[in-house]
Amino acid sequence: MAKTVSPILPASFFQRDPLLCARELVGRELVWGKCSGIVVETEAYLTLNDEASHTFSRPSTRAFVERNAAGTVYIYMNYGVHWMLNVLVKGGARSGLILIRALEPRRGLGLMRARRGVEDVYRLCSGPGKLAQALDITKRHHEMNFCADPRYGFKRQGGVDGDVVADPRIGISRSREFPWRFTLSGSPFISVPVRLPGAEKPLTRARRARTLPAQ
Q1: Hey, what domains does the chain have and what are their CATH numbers?
Q2: Predicted TM-score of the model (pTM)
Q3: For residues 108 and 140, what is the distance between their CA atoms, to the nearest angstrom?
Q4: Which residue, of 59, 69, 116, 189, has the fewest CB within 10 Å?
């Protein structure tokens, strides 16, 4: 009897380096209940030696990483206003959390518009707080297994191909120089445009961006 293969990414996908996972999630389709969208922006945070990561200052986050497996959903509220969707990466040489920053909406646009109170498709999921509101993501999803239910996860197949741009993370005050934000090149759905010109130039600590070829 043939073994049934899940349509969503398995836990093994998230048992690798966080930067690699954050890059390779760009272009994947995220399914969330009756809605879905193409991931066009992610950010990687390491669990060790990363001052911008919650694990640097929050014992509760360190405990979350310790007790959970790769592919577990991590939800937190930003500035007491917006929920943020993250996935735990664990099992390789280093572990981390990947923030899903923006989507290109594909399915369930009517629901997204009603939840967000806006019509413009480019504003529905163009930021982590907007994305969570559009998909109705809240604290109740914290510690959910991203790899167990085909109604909630990243599709194995489909999505879009394209170059991925790496540039410095945004909205943080520490470790801002690390080029760990990944965006789909040319996408009008990302939260903030790549800030510096010359995306084809080598990445340096002078906060330049570079384009990574599609795999």
Answers
A1: 11-212 (3.10.300.10)
A2: 0.89
A3: 21
A4: 59
